[in-house]
Amino acid sequence: MAILETPYLQLARTILERGHVKGDRTGTGTRSLFGYQMRFDLSKGFPLLTTKKVAFGLIKSELLWFLRGDTNIRYLLQHNNHIWDEWAFKNWVESSAYTGPEMHDFGHRALKDAAFAAEYQKQKQDFCARILADPSFAAKYGELGDVYGAQWRHWKTRKGETIDQIQNVITNIKQNPNSRRLIVTAWNPEDVPASALPPCHTLFQFYVVDGKLSCQLYQRSADVFLGVPFNIASYALLTHLIARQTGLEVGEFVHTLGDAHLYNNHLEQIKKQLGRAPKEAPTLWLNPEKKNVFAFEMEDIKVLNYNPHPGIKAPVSV
């Protein structure tokens, strides 16, 4: 039986035991470690956590959104994916066009004030419905700026041209698999001020040996309870997709973390998760008729034999 989430569970335990108490941008507060690495052997199964249910449908739609080069939440909402809502909603309620109830610091206030939380949810639902129904509104207020999709597929050069980093790395893997330059970066200092959320997973590199493709991600900021389980599965899936197109088997996913943190309002949740016994990892199914990374749709990607413990809810810090 392959238990693949052990490195993640050990990370969480280490932060609880040795994490530094730190403030953070969101005002929530964290326990934090700097510099940590996990390794997952993708040939032994797919590293989707079993100690809590992780919504694989959200992982799929987000990754396909990135690969499309899309930066507008409308595609995500069309696939019932709300994980980027708060950043677009923040832009809306801070705009001069917004005339609804005051929504300042909605993330923290919703946790402390039930009446405000109900109004916040109503306003956010109305916002999402309008994004879906009104393409013009979506174009203006659903746009997140130069987030991952733009940097991966449409990197802007000083000459006014764009670079498709994903296509380039696929071509280079095929033509020069021994290259040490099989890199995609999302961190562009010039674009950071205009991004809704500057890239947390900043750079990834591929490595080919013995007919297997491995991927290492450097993640500058890692929300260990909510974000990291998604990041592990997302980059494992990306490695599988790139391996499919380049005719390789999968090797390892290596996850290197900068600031790895547990938010203070996630501590009870992670303790609950650590009290559960992990189960056998699921397997990934990709439509055998698809090879082109950019041709995959939601129905072409599935996890099989996924039998996790129930999900554990926790608030998102914005």
From TrEMBL:
Pfam families for the chain: Thymidylat_synt
Binding-site residues for dUMP, renumbered to this chain: 25, 180-181, 220-223, 231, 261-263
Domain of life where this protein originates: Bacteria
One cellular-component annotation, GO: cytosol
Catalytic residues as annotated in Swiss-Prot or TrEMBL: 200
Keyword annotations of the record: Cytoplasm, Methyltransferase, Nucleotide biosynthesis, Transferase
GO molecular function: thymidylate synthase activity
Gene3D superfamilies, per the entry: Thymidylate synthase/dCMP hydroxymethylase domain (3.30.572.10)
Pathway this chain belongs to: Pyrimidine metabolism; dTTP biosynthesis
Compartment list: Cytoplasm
EC id: 2.1.1.45
Sites where the protein binds (6R)-5,10-methylene-5,6,7,8-tetrahydrofolate: 223, 317
Protein family: Belongs to the thymidylate synthase family. Bacterial-type ThyA subfamily.
Function noted in UniProt: Catalyzes the reductive methylation of 2'-deoxyuridine-5'-monophosphate (dUMP) to 2'-deoxythymidine-5'-monophosphate (dTMP) while utilizing 5,10-methylenetetrahydrofolate (mTHF) as the methyl donor and reductant in the reaction, yielding dihydrofolate (DHF) as a by-product. This enzymatic reaction provides an intracellular de novo source of dTMP, an essential precursor for DNA biosynthesis.
Complex formation: Homodimer.
Protein's recorded name: Thymidylate synthase
Originating organism: Liquorilactobacillus satsumensis DSM 16230 = JCM 12392
